[in-house]
Amino acid sequence: MHDFFYQHRTVGIIRITGEDAEDYLQSQLTIDLRKLSPGQVRFGLRLNSKGKILAGAHILRLGEEEYILFSQGLEAQGLISLLEENVVADEVEFEDESENWACLTLGIEKLGDFLPKLGNPSTLDGKIIKLEDGFIFKNERFQENVFFLILKKNSPDSSTLTNDLKEISMEEYEFFRMQAGCFSIPCEIGPNELPQEAGLEKLFVDFNKGCYLGQEVMARLHSMGQVQRKTVTVEWQGYSESPPNLPMRVLINQKNTGTLKALTKLGKQWIGVATIHQKGIEQLGGTGLNLEDESFGKITKL
Question: What phi and psi, each to the nearest 5 degrees, are found at residue 150?
C-alpha cells in the first residue's frame, strides 16, 4: 500500500446530544458505549430485531452527552430515521451536520513520518485526535494504517495533512476497500445479512452488554455456533468486457448457492463482493462458481 488520500463524495454525519444520549444509543447499537470515554471512537452496528444489519457507523464520543456518528454507507437522514424509530420520552436530539464537513480517507504505509503532524500521540487505537478544524481517527475496519479525516469544509488542515500523499480515484479506493474486506453497509452487507456472515461480530458486537436491538439473536449465535453463509471478496473471471447487472445469483450444480453483489475494476482486474453458502465456499476457492447467466463466466475467491 502506498500513501494516499481519497475525498469522499457522500457521507452521513450526525451530532447526537441530550441527557439520555448514552442510554438511548446503548439500547440501539451493538457496542458498549458505557465503556467509551470522551475522546474515544469505535465502530458499531444498528441491527433489526432479527439481528440483520441495517447500518454501521463510527461513534465518536465528544463529551458526556455529545456524540458524532459518521457513516460511509448511509446518508444522514437515513441514519437519523433508523435511530429515531424507538424514541419515546428520551431526551436525545439528532442533527444532520453532513453539509458542514469534508471527509477524507488517508492510507499511511509508514507512520513514522506522519505522527509528528498529529502531535506524536502515544496511541492511535480507539482515540480521536482533535485538530483545529476537525478530527482524525484510525479506521478499525482495516488492518492497515487507514484513517478518517473529518474537517470543516475549506479547512487548511486538509492540505497540511495530505501534501505528501497521492490522491486516488474512486475506482482505486473501491478496489482497495473491497480487497481489504471492508464491505459497504448496507449495500454489500445489509438487511439480509447477519454480522457473523461478514466477521463483524469479532470487533463490533459486545456480547456482555445489556439489551439492544438484535441482542437475542446475537447471543444465540454466539453460543450455538457458525452461520451458514459467508461474505467474501471474489475475483470475476468474465467473458464479457461489460459487467453483469447486479445482484446476480451464484450457482453450484445449477442450484443457488449465493449472490454476487458488487464489482469494481482496476486496470484489467475485476473484483467484487459475494455472499456464498458454506457448501459453495470450497469450490469458490478452487475451480470457482458459475454466475446465473453463464455468458458472464464465473467468480473465484480472491
Answer: -115, 115
